[in-house]
Amino acid sequence: MKRHLVLPVVAAATAGLLLTSCSGGDSEPDDDIAGAQTSAPPEDDEPEEPEDDADAEADTDAPDDGIDRPVIELPEDMTKEFEDVDTDDPDELAVLADQARYASAVDEAIAAGEVGPALEFYATGEGYASALDLVTGFHEDGYRVGGSTRYYNRSVTMREDSMATSSYCVDFSDAYSIDLETGEEFPDGDEQGLYSFRHVLNDAGVWQVDSWTAASGGDSCD
Questions:
Q1: How would residue 146 be classed by pLDDT, with cut points 50, 70 and 90?
Q2: What class is the 21-221 domain?
């Protein structure tokens, strides 16, 4: 299995995941994935554990906003490097931090084979449903993600009505998919991905991803 443009894409019906360009859709989540009975996260559920030092690397430089966040636990063989963005604007920094947490929450769910509180916390609407599609695809094919992934050329734009847009390029050259049955690793190759996100600010102060587009990186990610 070869994984292309891993986060977030629609899982293909074949043995692997393949994307040249796509966007979030309205597909329903698979009931075989624990915690994925609905296409939107529960509104009343509260995260059980606050954020601590075990969280994904994306959180290490984020401002302390006092929000009680779920812990994100990634496999030991997975690392994620998020390039810094030259901004001191607190709102922009908050969007970028939650952008990174969303990416980590999806990979956490893929590794666990089930949806945890972090994905429900950082995603809503199509951003949540498309992530469930991805988790379902890996679960059904018997794979998870490993290796190192680099996120660069990151940007953010604040919009009206508590909305924002953001983007990043992804370098998969040191990442791979792992066959859970055999342990065999399948490198992802040198292809780069360009991702764009729309964020909405919820009542808890979290910039949730509610839609996205994705394409091959091309000149935008050189």
A1: very high
A2: alpha beta
Secondary structure E strands in the chain: 21-23, 78-82, 143-158, 163-179, 185-187, 192-201, 207-216
Distances (CA, A) of 211 to 47, 94, 139: 22, 18, 22
**C-beta separation of 113 from 145 below 8 A:** no
Which residues are paired to 17 by β-bridges? 3
Closest residue by Cα to residue 111 from 72, 160, 68, 153: 72
Give the chain's count of helices (H) and strands (E).
3, 7
Q: For residues 128 and 61, what is the distance between their CA atoms, to the nearest angstrom?
A: 25
Burial class for 216, CB neighbours closer than 10 Å (0-12, 13-18, 19+): middle
Kindly report the number of other CB atoms within 10 A of residue 14's CB atom.
10
Could you identify the residue written with the tokens 């992530």? 131
Give residue 13's Cα distance to chain centre.
Answer: 21
Question: Could you report the per-residue pLDDT of 41-90, keeping only the tens digit for each?
Answer: 545 455 444 444 434 444 445 557 789 999 999 999 999 999 999 999 99
The model's pTM: 0.76
Q: Where are the domains of the chain?
A: 21-221
φ/ψ bin of 145: left (φ > 0), alpha (ψ from -120 to 50), beta (otherwise): beta
Question: What distance in Å separates the CA atoms of residue 130 and residue 149, rounded to the nearest whole number?
Answer: 20
Encoding tokens for residue 72?
């994100």
Q: Which of 219, 11, 13 is nearest to 134 (CA)?
A: 11
Query: Can you read off the two tokens belonging to residue 6?
Result: 């891993």
